[in-house]
């Protein structure tokens, strides 16, 4: 009888250990794949990736290992996520049609920065922009933008003169070849983009006098195959907003933009948008 009890005790303990080990294995398999940059020198995802890591670290008791998927554009990422393949999460500007295919975690990540647009231009064209008095005069010039970008829909609806491309890096080359007059970028993007490309495009400059302003929130989008991940991101974001981590990380990345780009000294042209940021 004592021997039977001893065997049962050992069995129960082995079962407990096995259960704990299995739990650890399951937790270790919870991996978020974040859509990476559009090119090897594209560093725009640094902030969104760091923010995601912080959010998920505050979504206990689950533990996530945030890793990057192979490079892919938004259209491919959306398709893969809709099918539940390869990519679980991406950060992107709001897009109405994605509401039916992906789960949007509707906490804006950039506090309106992506909707504030300043331009890349060729150095010899600054005078062309300095004399512009209103948005209708600006619309006469050729604007370069991505073919399927969310901001492009806004430019179209506001009747800008567009030249589009499916290639992010290709737009810099097109500007250098004078295929269009200006290339609007989010104020959160343009300084790092300039720093990494100024030697490749020595005639490229940041326009000094104008800023476009529209509503263009940035969200995390999650594959519908993993709704629990969307919920954990939502909970984690709420936690880091409450404890101040969100604001601290935001300030670390973007606190100098107002001064560096002299935003308060620019003419502001407002664009209508279907979104609210």
TrEMBL record:
Please identify the protein, giving its name as recorded.
Answer: Solute-binding protein family 3/N-terminal domain-containing protein
């Amino acid at each position: 009888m004592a021997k039977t009890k001893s065997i049962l005790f050992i069995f129960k303990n082995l079962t407990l250990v096995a259960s704990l080990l299995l739990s650890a294995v399951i937790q270790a398999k919870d991996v978020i794949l974040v859509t990476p940059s559009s090119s090897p020198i594209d560093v725009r995802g640094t902030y969104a990736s760091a923010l995601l890591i912080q959010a998920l670290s505050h979504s206990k008791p689950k533990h996530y290992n945030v890793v990057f998927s192979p490079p892919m554009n938004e259209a491919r990422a959306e398709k893969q996520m809709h099918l539940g393949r390869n990519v679980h999460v991406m950060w992107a500007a709001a897009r109405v049609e994605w509401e039916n295919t992906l789960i949007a975690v509707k906490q804006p990540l950039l506090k309106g920065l992506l909707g504030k647009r300043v331009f890349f231009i060729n150095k010899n064209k600054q005078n062309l922009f300095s004399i512009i008095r209103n948005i209708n005069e600006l619309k006469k010039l050729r604007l370069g933008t991505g073919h399927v970008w969310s901001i492009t829909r806004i430019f179209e609806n506001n009747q800008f003169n567009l030249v589009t491309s499916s290639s992010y890096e290709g737009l810099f080359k097109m500007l250098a070849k004078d295929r269009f007059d200006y290339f609007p970028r989010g104020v959160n993007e343009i300084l790092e983009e300039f720093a990494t490309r100024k030697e490749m495009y020595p005639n490229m400059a940041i326009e000094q006098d104008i800023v476009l302003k529209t509503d263009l929130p940035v969200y995390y989008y999650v594959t519908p195959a993993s709704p629990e991940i969307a919920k954990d991101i939502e909970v984690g974001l709420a936690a880091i907003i409450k404890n101040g981590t969100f604001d601290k990380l935001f300030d670390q990345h973007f606190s100098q933009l107002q001064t560096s780009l002299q935003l308060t000294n620019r003419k502001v042209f407002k664009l209508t948008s279907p979104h609210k940021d």
